[in-house]
From TrEMBL:
Protein name from the UniProt record: DUF2200 domain-containing protein
Domain of life: Bacteria
Length: 116
């Protein structure tokens, strides 16, 4: 499968959709941001910088300070694929984020989403 289209998409173009998905289900932008911070190691300022610069997904994850050591605890199906079985590491990171936002929208507690 050619994932280059996804990799070249700007994170800023997808970020509002994450927020909309969460807010439709009564969750908040702050919770979306907390998930992104947990997964990538970014903080409010560095996340905002990537949004303003329209960083693509490939660079967004390549420049992440530190992928959370508990990402291996993220399991399940997103977009028809088991996240733990995705071999392409970059696509796996993108799907990790999709999965966490999906769990947020489904009403899961933040403690469980952040694998605490």
């Amino acid at each position: 499968m050619d994932n280059s289209r996804v990799y070249k998409m700007s994170f800023a173009s997808v970020y509002p959709h994450y927020i909309t998905k969460a807010e439709r289900k009564g969750r908040t932008k702050a919770e979306v941001d907390e998930i992104i911070f947990w997964l990538t190691g970014y903080n409010k300022e560095t996340l905002q910088k990537h949004i303003e610069e329209k960083t693509n997904f490939e660079s967004f994850f390549d420049q992440a300070p530190q992928l959370n050591p508990n990402v291996s605890k993220i399991t399940g199906v997103i977009c028809g694929y088991r996240v733990e079985e995705i071999e392409d590491r970059l696509m796996q990171k993108v799907r990790y984020l999709d999965k966490l936002i999906d769990e947020l929208a489904k009403g899961k507690a933040m403690e469980k989403i952040l694998r605490k």
